[in-house]
Amino acid sequence: YVATVFERNCGATADYSTNVSLREAKESFDPSSQTPILTVAGQPTIALEWSTESTLAVALPQAETFKKLEAWRDVRVAYR
Questions:
Q1: Is the pLDDT of residue 14 over 80?
Q2: Long-range contacts of range 48-51, CB-CB < 8 Å, 24 or more positions apart?
Q3: Shortest CA distance to 66 belongs to which of 17, 25, 10?
Q4: Long-range contacts of the stretch 60-68 (C-beta < 8 A, 24+)
């Protein structure tokens, strides 16, 4: 799997959001088709690290969180 941090600009009436998505390594990244496992307000710096083959560690600063999944397929997501 591949983990990606990306931003979305929601237009003139809404602020940016920062997202983390997971996908199979053979898939190309397409931000319009990615379903995030994490969505937070603004443009904070988010650090990702694979601590094991099936555990993604996410360093998440304080930010308004809209979506925060603890797992995706067979990957466990550990927030710190």
A1: no
A2: 48/3, 48/5, 48/20, 50/3, 51/78
A3: 17
A4: 63/18, 64/40, 65/38, 65/39, 65/40, 65/41, 66/17, 66/39, 66/40, 66/41, 67/36, 67/37, 67/38, 67/39, 68/37, 68/38, 68/39
SS3 at position 79: strand
pTM comes to: 0.90
Average pLDDT over residues 26-31: 93
What mean pLDDT comes out for the span 22-37? 92
The lowest-confidence range among 43-47, 51-55, 60-64, 71-75 is 60-64
